[in-house]
């Protein structure tokens, strides 16, 4: 049993992580800006506050004496610096969630004009040279303006005082996904649409995904395994499927009778305006796949998927179906 402090533990990953760590009889405390939208297990403590003022809560963290701090939302270099300052002398281990967007392949995918990088991305692959990937001038003071996971990683790993584990996550999916990465395909199937259109260049694109409870498994191992300390690990499924292959799998599992139609990029159809925009824009280079190799965490920490790939997809469909059914019931009662 460990005392575990979660920063940002009330979101998509957090609710699954709380459930798993509580089952293992750990003592948990959540620090987050927003109160949980789900019922917390008995005995889980919460501190509601803004991480921009993390230093104000040092005394409370010190009373809890966390064996490990899991930061689910370190976005900026300042976030990382505050973590190190606040928890110096309080904990010996910080686990920080990062993203595959640190890799240079992500920069190319976002239309840098550079030559496509072949192969898979491992922990030693080249990192982005263009910093602040989501920065826009009009977003000044926006949450994402100073977002830079590369700076987070470098600041934490170079501190020399607290052990750090960095987990670079693939694209997550699963129940309660706030980013709804698969629902754009699942919902039309559940609501009886007759066709799903996908640009041809996007249909063949491959992006490694991970079921949310597999991500939780990786965090759990990082907490418990000494070999995880002061290292970086990719977290993703063993196999990466194309967008078209994923849609085909969703079709089979939902029993959908509609048609998947690939459309050439230079054709303007009578599709909705937002789809026409996707067909013609060149913001993304879908020739740059984002295939992540997660062999290191499998070899060093014994990581493996919590459920087979198809089961994770099926559970995601079941969750989306529950939402669609609930919406129908609400509409019928009005």
Automatic annotation (TrEMBL):
Gene3D superfamilies: NAD(P)-binding Rossmann-like Domain
Residue ranges of the TM segments: none
InterPro entries for the chain: Epimerase_deHydtase, Lipid_A_modif_metabolic_enz, NAD(P)-bd_dom_sf
Pfam entry (one): Epimerase
Protein name: NAD dependent epimerase/dehydratase family
NAD-dependent epimerase/dehydratase domain sequence ranges: 4-236
